[in-house]
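During data preparation, we tokenized the protein backbone, and the record follows.
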Amino acid sequence: MLVIGDYSDVKLSWLGHGSFKIETSTGKIIYLDPWIDENPACSLKLHEISRADIVCVTHGHIDHIGDSIEIVKKTGAVFIGTPELGMFARKNGIPEEGGSLCPLNIGGSANFQGIKVIMANAVHTSDIMINDSDAVVGSGACSYIIMSEDDPSIYFAGDTGVFMDMQIIADLYSPQIAMLPIGGKYTMGVDEAAYAAQLLKPKTFIPMHFATFPDQEADLKRLKTLLDIRAPATDLVILKPGESFTLP
């Protein structure tokens, strides 16, 4: 496990596949694409989640919208997603009144008790795919930058291929931590992810969205080799599902 930076107790936990939990230095809990109960890589169960402050969803595929609505209902967290995801959440019991629903669009942002959440671009399809009866035409996927005064800026790519606007994300937000998919097939693979790290220039790169299924394995040795060439200043932190990375 690597130790970097001068930040206070920011804990990132990989829940498996494309799901993360962030515990900020001020004690806020953020879930990113929380696919919990049906996630074969996730040991955490929905009934074990009792606290959440923010739930960010990048798109409507079942392995990303996952258990987000249930978590918001049971914890009172804020649901953040595109307007289309917000409409789906509202139809499924998340009220617009009371601050539980915060739809954003690309380039938009919102502040919650010292935490700024910015919605950025991603290159991926995004119909809402829960089951046949709930299929809703989506509007594209997104990614998130999470910033606060005392903690490192975090870029959560969600599902995406590499794209040149990652350079804009680097220029505008200087993410110190980047969670990037590497599994190939439905997202970029290791070659593209190494190039993404070159564009983003994070201090730390945490891979995700790999090894959950046999057709989405990743060559981690090749990733490290390519990263040493393309982004030698970036540290690669490889977690196993359920493991956490804490910035001291």
About this structure: The radius of gyration is 17 Å.
